[in-house]
Amino acid sequence: LWKFESFDEYTGDEWKSSLLAGKSLYSFYPMQEYIDNYFPDPELLKIQFPISPAVGNNLMILPSLFPIPFIIEDSIDAPNLDQASTILYKDDFNAVSVNLQFSDSQPVNLSYQLFGLDLPTDVEINNSALSALYTPLEIRNQYLQLPPSIDSYKLINTFFTNHFNILDGIISNSDNAFEVANIIRNYLTSPPFSFPTSIPDYNPAPQGRDIVDWFCEQEKGIWSDFASAFCAFTRAFGVSSRYVEGFSGFLADDIYDP
C-alpha cells in the first residue's frame, strides 16, 4: 500500500488537512541500519518518476509505504540536484514531503530508496480492537467531523442517509471499531455499488454536489469516491477515521489501481 497525503477535514467536495496536522523535520533512515535490522525482509525498493523542477527550492510529496515512512539516507538522486540541501519532513499523519534544491529547470527523473513494514492482518486487528466508545476524546474530536455536523449531514444528504439506514440494520451495538469498519468496507464494495473499468464509464459528481452523497445516489464511482464514502460512514457510526490518498500498486490511477 502506497500513500501520498492524508486528510482529516471533509468539506463536501474535497478533503483538507486541518491546522492540527503539523509538519516537522524528519530523519532519513541509514542504509546500514536497514541492513542490520531488516535486510532482506522487508525488501528495499527504488522508486523513480519524472519531475519538472524550478530553479531553487522545490517542496514536494514523496510517496511512501505504510505504516511509517522509511526513506533511505543519501538515496534521493536526480541531475542538477544539490543533495546536501535536501530536507525531509513528516506531518502528524505520517505523510512525507521533501525540499529539493535544483540548479536547472530541465525535466529530470527523481529516484530514491525506501522500505515499509508488514501490515497487521484483519484477524490481528480484530483481536485487539475495542468498541469505538473507548476512543480517546482528542481523537474523536478530530476524526469524527462531517460538515456541518454528523446529524446535519445526514439530514442534508438523503442518499447517504438511505444507505446509512441500511447499514444501521446490519451493524450491532456489540461490534468493535474494526467490525464496524469492515462491515462498511464490504457493503461499499459489493453490489449495488460498482466501480468503472474505463474512464468513459465514470460520471463524477457535478460541481457543488457532495461527492459522497453523489456516490451513494449513483452507486458507482472510482476508488477515491469509495475512500471518501468509507470515511464518512465510519465517522457517522462513531468510528474515527481519516482520508488517505494512495494506491495499492504501482499504476497510481483511480480507475485501474484501487
TrEMBL record:
* Residue ranges of every copy of the Transglutaminase-like domain listed in the record: 168-247
Q: What InterPro entries does this protein's entry cite?
A: Bact_TGase-like, Papain-like_cys_pep_sf, Transglutaminase-like
Question: Which Pfam families does this one have?
Answer: Transglut_core
Signal peptide: which range, if any? none
Write the protein's name.
Answer: Transglutaminase-like domain-containing protein
